[in-house]
């Protein structure tokens, strides 16, 4: 895609300092959008803003927690003032926590007995409050920007939203209970909003990335010497294209879903970008 298909449109990208959505933000700017970069850590957003500005693009950087409705509303007011009304929203803020996953892949009697070691965390040892944090980030942290920026889109009678689901949305991966249920929620939220917002001229879709190495997952999937951990090998064995995704692999799908011309009749879908992972039974 080389045309300025988003020329002068205002795009809001949450999680814009992250592995995947930093690339999405830069691509939207390359295609002409004025981009608001949202995330909590300014230091992660700065290089993304710099890279956009270096090529003559417009980037506005805002430190905001997407689960805080008042903070997102404040960010919205600044974006409206400095860039104009938003018609494109990418909800990339999301993720998991190490202390919200189980250590075994299935029940082990030790997790409910005195034999439980300190490092063991079975389902029965998970902290509900920590799980709630993960669920809140991925669901409420998507819902709030949809409400705040979707309202402005409804006032304009047009807009496109892309949410970030996951392979966990379809079938839960072992260990990842809270993350899986929250990402299943993202697909459901995407469908619900697509139906509700169709009369307002707003399309709502999602992408479901397969395995892309980010700061956290790199440690889970790769060894220090660049090889694969046992879990990384398991993922690779179930990925027909035999590689992890690169942020660039997502750009065509995200930009197509945001494009009111090419995806004019597409709403309520979640597109897997996964090297065939979700199609593979592994057998
Ligand atoms: N990488 C994968 O393999 C993969 C696969 C499937 C789905 N996904 C999903 O794709 C999205 C992007 O993933 P990624 O790999 O790019 O992850 P990442 O590198 O960890 O980026 C996520 C970004 O979200 C921001 N964030 C976290 N909590 C936030 C909050 N409360 N408010 C505002 N920003 C917040 C983080 O920055 P701060 O901490 O500074 O706020 C971070 O920069 C996520 O939703 C993830 O769940 C990723």
Describe the overall structure.
The chain has 283 residues and is of the alpha/beta class. It has one domain (10-279): NAD(P)-binding Rossmann-like Domain (Rossmann fold, 3-Layer(aba) Sandwich), CATH 3.40.50. Helix content is 41%, strand content 14%. Strands 3-2-1-4-5-6-7 form a 7-stranded parallel beta sheet, with helices on both faces. The longest helix has 29 residues, at 128-156. The two termini are 37 Å apart. The model has no long low-confidence stretch (mean pLDDT 97). NADP nicotinamide-adenine-dinucleotide phosphate (NAP) is lined by residues 14-15, 17-21, 39-41, 44, 65-67, 92-95, 137, 141, 164, 166, 209, 211-212, 214-215, 217.
Fourth CATH level, the homologous superfamily? NAD(P)-binding Rossmann-like Domain
For the record, the CATH architecture stands as: 3-Layer(aba) Sandwich
**Shape field:** globular
N-C termini distance: 37 Å
Number of domains: 1
Task: Summarize this structure briefly.
By secondary structure, this protein is of the alpha/beta class. The chain has 8 helices and 7 strands.
